[in-house]
Each structure stands twice: as structure tokens, then as C-alpha cells.
């Protein structure tokens, strides 16, 4: 890339083309990275959960966050907070695994709070109550300082 120009996608929108590692950290140009999630994909809730779980299990919560973000932006208004909360859990796990324990704990707690209205109903089979508990417990652990392994800490999204 020319340092005076921004990377652009096929539609001309600014988009960083640097490769990324499994936790979403940018790598130098020309370095092999992991495949990025396409943006703006409209999936069913079941497809969203299946893809996000696959990515979480693979230790790629940053990429799972992008899947949840698509659902948040394209889903029905009354579910946006649900998907936003799940995205916050994934990015909280990302920051925690990167060693940003304060930011990771904060986002995990924020995501747990966003899921609170859904804990009784658990839409789409989402284990909202269990995920809230998981996020708060993990936030307490990472706030104490240890960097965690994202794959080892991957939550179960469904009941």
C-alpha cells in the first residue's frame, strides 16, 4: 500500500487490507494471516450462532464479534441489544486474550449487562443467563491480571 493512500475495498470504502492474526491484531503487509470475516452478511440467528461458536471454539473471538455485529446491524430492532451484547462478550474475550485485562473485563461486564433483559427468554436457544454468569466470572478473573487463552475460555452460546 502507498503510505499516502488508504486501503479501499471493491466498492471504494476505506478498509484496512493488512492481514490479521486469530485475535484480530494487524500484521505487517505480506504476512500470512487468518481469513477475515466478510462484512454485511445477513444470516439467520441459527447460522449466526453456529458460525460464531465455530470461531469462538477456534480461539478467534474477534472474528466471532464481527459475525455478531452483522446480526446486530441487520436483525430486528427488538433483538439488536441481544446481538450487541454477544458482540461485546466476544470483543471482551478478545481484549482479555490480548492482555488488555482492564478493557477486557469492562467489555465482558458491559456485554453481560446487555444480555440481562434476555436471560429469562433466551431467544433462539441462546443461554443468555449462563453467558451473563460466564462473562462476569471471567471479568473478575481477568481483572486480577492473567492473560487468558481465548479457545480455552470459549463459552457455549446455546443452552
Walk me through this protein's architecture.
By secondary structure, this protein is mainly alpha-helical. The chain has helices at residues 45-57, 61-74, 80-98, 101-115, 128-143. The protein contains five helices and no strands. The longest helix has 19 residues, at 80-98. It is globular. Helix content is 48%, strand content 0%.
Tell me what portion of residues adopts beta-strand conformation.
Answer: under 5%
* Rg estimate, integer Å: 16 Å
Sheet with the most strands, sense and barrel status? none
Task: List the total number of helices.
Answer: 5
Helix content: 40-55%
Query: Quick check: average pLDDT?
Result: 91
Spans of at least 5 consecutive residues with low confidence: none
Topology as a string of helices (H) and strands (E) = HHHHH
Instruction: Tell me the structural class.
Output: mainly alpha
Overall shape: it is: globular
Give the distance, in angstroms, between the N- and C-terminal Cα atoms.
Answer: 45 Å
Q: Report the count of strand segments.
A: 0
Amino acid at each position: 500500500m502507498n503510505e499516502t493512500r488508504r486501503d479501499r475495498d471493491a466498492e471504494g470504502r476505506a478498509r484496512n487490507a493488512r492481514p490479521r492474526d486469530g485475535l484480530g491484531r494487524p500484521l505487517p503487509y505480506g504476512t500470512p494471516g487468518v481469513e477475515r470475516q466478510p462484512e454485511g452478511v445477513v444470516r439467520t440467528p441459527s447460522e449466526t450462532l453456529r458460525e460464531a461458536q465455530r470461531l469462538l471454539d477456534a480461539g478467534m473471538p474477534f472474528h466471532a464479534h464481527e459475525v455478531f455485529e452483522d446480526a446486530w446491524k441487520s436483525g430486528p430492532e427488538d433483538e439488536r441489544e441481544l446481538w450487541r451484547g454477544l458482540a461485546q462478550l466476544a470483543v471482551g474475550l478478545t481484549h482479555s486474550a490480548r492482555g488488555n485485562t482492564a478493557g477486557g473485563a469492562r467489555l465482558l461486564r458491559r456485554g453481560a449487562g446487555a444480555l440481562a433483559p434476555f436471560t429469562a427468554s433466551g431467544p433462539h436457544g441462546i443461554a443468555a443467563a449462563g453467558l451473563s454468569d460466564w462473562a462476569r466470572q471471567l471479568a473478575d478473573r481477568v481483572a486480577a491480571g492473567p492473560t487468558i487463552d481465548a479457545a480455552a475460555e470459549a463459552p457455549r452460546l446455546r443452552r
